[in-house]
Model the fold of this input.
Amino acid sequence: MHIKICGITTLEAAQAACDAGADMLGFVFAQSKRKITPEQAKAIIEKIPAHVKKTGVFVNEELDIIEETVRTAGLDYVQLHGDESAAFAQKITVPVIKAFGIENKSDLNKASMFETDFYLFDSPKGKYRGGNGTSFDWAVLEENDFPKDKTILAGGLTPENVKEAILRVRPVAVDVSSGVETNGIKDRAKIILFIEEAKLAFQQLEESDRHGSICTAR
Done:
């Protein structure tokens, strides 16, 4: 069970997330208001705990540039948020998270045909691929047998709804960016509350699995 804080652009935000118990941090190298350079990411990554995994977000980027960024910044994962093929993903030398915008079950069917380490399910693309602060109908993920141990849930998550989202979808991880911001800046208080709520939900899932009971937020 993991919690990823994405769209990190400052050391202060990274430290706040790590101090609150985040398992992963995301750095955006694609066109976005949260875009960061590999050198800027490296300067942050060098100052945060090694056990916190670092993910780079890319959109339809060239393989050579992705690999160079992995080396420069010191990334543990690559998150592909564009139209990349499964064959392209398999060429990347670190584990891959492939993002899919979800509107209906047909989008989930597309994902099931894509071989990757993890599947990130997000809201449909807006101005940017991801990080738009909108959610989708979680029922699409509830009513299927997609492998939960490879499912990362994103899209419109906030401290107020993350617990319900986890209990309904049962993902292995959740990913948040704008949901822990105030006026476009990472908010320490929101990060702390989000992580607290997510950890409570994951703990509740583990307890329900141990006791064989069904856990629901409804």
About this structure: The domain at 2-211 is CATH 3.20.20.70 (TIM Barrel).
